Amino acid sequence: MSKIVFNFIFVIFILTLSLNIISLNYSPLSNLGTQMLSKDLKNTIPGYHTRLREINELKNLTTIPQNNFEIEKTTSLVYESLRHGTRDLLFFENWFLWILSKFYEPLKRTQNIKKIVYSGLGTCNQASAVLNSIAKLNKVPNRFIALNGHVISELKIKNKWIMADADYGIIFPFGYKEMLNKDPKYVGEILRNLLNERGFDDDTIEKYEKILLSTANNKILKVDEAMSPRLLLVETFGEMFNWFFTFLLGLALLTLSQKKN
């Protein structure tokens, strides 16, 4: 009986150890590829539906501080490197979180900056998280602005808050609180010009304007606060637990082998 238990633990130990090692360098980009999300070429927006840059440039920006942080350049880089879209956490990224996500669906969406960048794909809150992470690395105060169904960033540049949307690749000339005191028509005109430059159609612009100017469910998060702090805590725990679990299995094997002797 003890031999059966030993062999079972050994198999699980080797399996989890192998998966943990694979996860260290596993890139979802190899699975997700670079194809656009929409097959309708007429409605394809370069940068939004397709990647315009190699992902390595963005990888470097998330790990190496810049000599001079530029909000326009950085926002454009995130926008042109991550195509818009959703994806589920993959088994080879973290087997433990993958299992948990089957019971709690929100865990399918990662907040891990490395995983987002390495996938080359992200939603609005994930693109904003990447931008905020780069800002934080460069000691630029940053926070999320949760709009009614959309998430953008707000960065403090030269003592002034500036809204930036890395998902749509646009920079506003003002912050959220400042925007609320401006004429909605002026704000709408600014937004229209910004999105027109990126190639978005009138229908998209109209929807964005309604979301931006709706104050019903909008919220300014604290500086450096995660978009979903509790989910990030669970994800961080999960990234450590898969190794801890394997370590416990190793200890169990060592204990059983000593009893054998």
Describe it:
- Helix content is 53%, strand content 10%.
- By secondary structure, it is an alpha+beta fold.
- The chain has a domain at 33-85 and 123-227.
- The strands form two sheets. The chain has a five-stranded antiparallel β-sheet with strand order 6-5-4-3-7.
- Strand 5 and strand 6 (170-171) form a beta hairpin.
- Helix 1 packs across helix 11 (229-260).
- The chain is elongated, with a radius of gyration of 22 Å.
- Residues 34-41 have low confidence and may be disordered.
Layout of strands and helices, then pairs:
Layout: H1 2-25, H2 29-32, H3 55-61, H4 71-81, E1 83-84, H5 95-101, H6 113-119, E2 121-122, H7 124-137, E3 142-146, E4 151-157, E5 160-165, E6 170-171, H8 176-180, H9 184-198, H10 202-213, E7 219-220, H11 229-260
Parallel strand pairs: 1-2
Antiparallel strand pairs: 3-4, 3-7, 4-5, 5-6
Helix pairs in contact: 1-11, 3-4, 4-7, 9-10
What are the salient characteristics of this protein?
single chain; 261 residues; alpha+beta; 5-stranded antiparallel β-sheet; two-stranded parallel sheet; 11 helices; 10% strand; elongated
